[in-house]
Design goal:
The mean pLDDT is about 80. This protein is about 65% helix and about 0% strand. The chain starts with a helix and ends with a helix. It has about 140 residues and is mainly α. The protein is globular.
Length: about 140
């Protein structure tokens, strides 16, 4: 969230976004991006997918025009987010290691602050990259 805050400050100071910075359009853009960033949290996955599946089940035809736009953006971002196993192996492995490093660091911080561990499979004491990847993929 801090990184996103820094980026919005940068964007709001750029010439390109200068004309929308204080407008309702900027507030809408900023709100949408925040929603999308929060949608990448694994803890939101089940809720978002249930909402999406509910929308699909209520549709009479396939066109996605009846799915709310923000929900569709969240699902498309999730598709991109979980696409790593479909990449060539070396690229997949590189990104798997990067995200694992981030998650192990997050677990370290949660443990240090005595917070519940969000992703126990990434605890430094029991971390296993192949096992974590299989769990992710399944």
């Amino acid at each position: 969230n801090f990184q996103w805050f820094c980026q919005t400050v940068s964007l709001s100071e750029s010439i390109f976004f200068l004309h929308v910075t204080f407008s309702s359009e900027w507030k809408s853009i900023r709100s949408t991006i925040i929603e999308l960033v929060l949608a990448t949290d694994i803890m939101q996955h089940t809720k978002i997918m249930a909402e999406f599946n509910s929308n699909l089940g209520a549709m009479e035809e396939w066109p996605l025009k009846e799915v709310p736009g923000l929900l569709l953006l969240k699902v498309l971002l999730k598709v991109a987010d979980v696409s790593n196993p479909g990449r060539p192996f070396e690229l997949c492995l590189t990104w798997a290691k990067r995200i694992a490093c981030e998650y192990v660091h997050q677990s370290d911080l949660e443990q240090k602050k005595e917070l519940p561990i969000t992703l126990p499979q990434f605890s430094r004491s029991s971390y296993d990259l192949p096992g974590a990847q299989l769990g992710f993929y399944n």
